[in-house]
Amino acid sequence: MKKGIKIWHFLLFVWILILLIRFELLLNTYELIFSWITLLFSDSNTALSQLNFDLFDSMFSGVFFIVIPILSYIYRKKLGFLYEKIFPAALFLILLITCFLFAPLISNKNPDFYKNIGTTKLLPPLSSVQVLHFKNNSTQPGNSFFPLREKVVKKSFDESIQYVDSASVGEKIIYYQNEIGKEANIEDLVMQGEKPYITQQIFMLGSDQFGRDALTRLIYGARISLTVGFGSVIISLFLGLTFGFLAGYIGGLLDSVFSRLTDMLLSFPIIFLVILILALFGNSLLSVIVVLGFSGWMSLFKIVKTEVLSIKEKNYFISSKLLGLTKKQLLFKEVLPVIIVPVIVNVIFQFGNVIIAESALSYLGLGLGNNYSSWGAMIQSGQEYLSLAWWMIFFPGITLIFTLLSANSFGLSLSRKLNPRLQND
Amino acid sequence: MRSATAKLLFKRIISSVIILFLIITFLFFLVRISPGDPVQKFVNPTLSPKLAEQVRTSLNLDRPLYMQYVGFLTSAIQGDLGVSYTFRRDVISVILEYLPFTLIFTTISFIIQMIVSFWLSIKSVKKINGFLDKTLSNLTLLIYATPVFVIGVFLVFIFSELLDIFPSSGASSFDADGFNFWARLVDYAYHLVLPIITLSLIEIAIFYKYMRDNLEDVYNKLFVLNLRANGVSEKDILIKHVIPNAINPLITVAGIELGIMLGGTLIVEVVFGLPGMGRLTVGAIFERDYPLVIGCSLVVSFLIIFSNLLADIIKALLDKRLLAGSLN
What we know:
The complex is a heterodimer of chains A (425) and B (328).
Chain A: H1 7-21, H2 23-42, H3 44-50, H4 53-74, H5 88-106, H6 117-120, E1 127-133, H7 145-152, E2 161-164, E3 166-169, E4 173-177, E5 180-184, E6 191-192, E7 195-196, E8 198-203, H8 214-250, H9 252-267, H10 270-281, H11 285-294, H12 298-312, H13 315-322, H14 327-364, H15 375-384, H16 391-418, H17 420-424
Antiparallel strand pairs in A: 1-2, 1-8, 3-4, 4-5, 6-7
Chain B: H1 2-33, H2 38-42, H3 49-58, H4 65-77, E1 83-84, E2 89-90, H5 91-126, H6 131-144, H7 148-162, H8 181-219, H9 222-229, H10 234-272, H11 277-286, H12 290-318, H13 320-327
Antiparallel strand pairs in B: 1-2
């Protein structure tokens, strides 16, 4: 065995870290899942009507948090990469994928949550504000599901708290927001023993112009980038494999049509095409994924086609063709195992390109719209506040650069590792 | 030889025309299959239904699809791309107003890219795996992984906000109209420093990588060893033998990169608020000014096809083997 920190060490470290920091939230999540399932049996209509994306998201990240470690322990023999030595690119990609899967567990806020903009807007990194907790009068009747959901699922608004610059406790509570003093009765506040319950809210990476937490938005932005990346790469992979195989296998007119098309699309600045299509068909998460997927299959097509052309002449391919394998079987059994390495490497680079394209589209305002906290959109809004808030461009920019760097270097090291010719040297 | 050149030229021009024709067709059907009433795409939605009906007739939308297509094609060939309703002028005249800026901007950037990447690659190939070579190849990876707009915003932050050396946006000062010719030129140059650096950096990284690998390949060839054994000076080897051999593939790449650079200018122009084609296109999209969007896409495709054609012709003129090949 090689010495040094391996990938599974790091994965375990991240898992324990989340477990320790968010222990209470995790417990609440499991209680929530349990109460939702009981509700599903007792009153299925209510349960299903309450099931929106946020709830689903919270519950699923809770389930994954247990299932994924168990599964990877059971199948550890098959997952050889777990025993590889860790390198910076893999480390960063693991962090990103963790954010992607467990975003509701890692961050304790909704990415769109804002409150008391005057107090919280454009706060520098590591600054903190005090939080006053008011009593919540609205109590939901019945099942334990609703109060649990209040605790677990982060809402984009919260009536019961106030962010304040400073607060002094006397007969009444006097608190200052944006240098305006306000009063509140002590009875309205949540008490902890004799004193009112006042907590600190730390903005690790600062806040934006609406007082939203930049770290939370970065974590949720990782989700957007990875979703778009994976989604469109799968589409490109499908198109590239199919077209490449067909063009190489059938050849003739089909081949020349596709080759011309590829040359044309490769020389055309894809971003013009993409924004044109997004402008005509409207921009949403799905359309961005589809358009980027459809505009990225050309290099895969070239790889697959050239390989298929050479494989077509080989004896093993001809014999399996004569055995009567269908085109699909030929592709998956005879062609794919041969070309899997260049295809995987190409897919990883394509992944990086798609993330660049998505962030550029979001920067231009043609991405996913304002509903999502995309990194590109964060940089775009940061540019407006450049003189006031450097952190608004710095952190998303650095994250973007690191993501792409690690995707590229991961692709390079993978191609070095998987390439048998290089291994023999 | 002359007839061979003519033949090659003819072949390339024909295929370019076909590609342009395909693009026009593609654009036409893209607009037609997109959801929504086509009239709404060509007319400001706030106008009256009666006018919309007039426009429907004038755009031949009441005729069958193939007639519409023929109409679109003929008017596109005649240079009539419709009327932009945000500018209330012919699309072509709006584009002609914005195009020169982008052309000059990309040309300057292109020249700078060529000179810098060429110079750097020659410097670094002199000592392969030396300090400069390693630093530059790492730097190339970093720049290659950085989106254009991030470079732009970071440069604005460093040089406009922190150091306050260069202006953060615009192509000229607001009082530039009062300047004389030279002062105006200096003003333009001063405003364009950051945009040109932003646009050039990533292309420099690509060209540098390509050029360096090419030069290294040629240096490893046997004829270089032979020349060295014959006592030819290193300078002569580089200038007379290595560079001419290494430069050829670069021209193809340059032709393609010119197209990709036009996509890059789109973002750079938005970052720095420059009055060029890119910002015109993005603005037109936000205004839902479809005639202008389609016009911009057509002009950009034309430019790209033209630059690819030019690259092919230059390559053919430099490399006589290609002409010989075209005879067979």
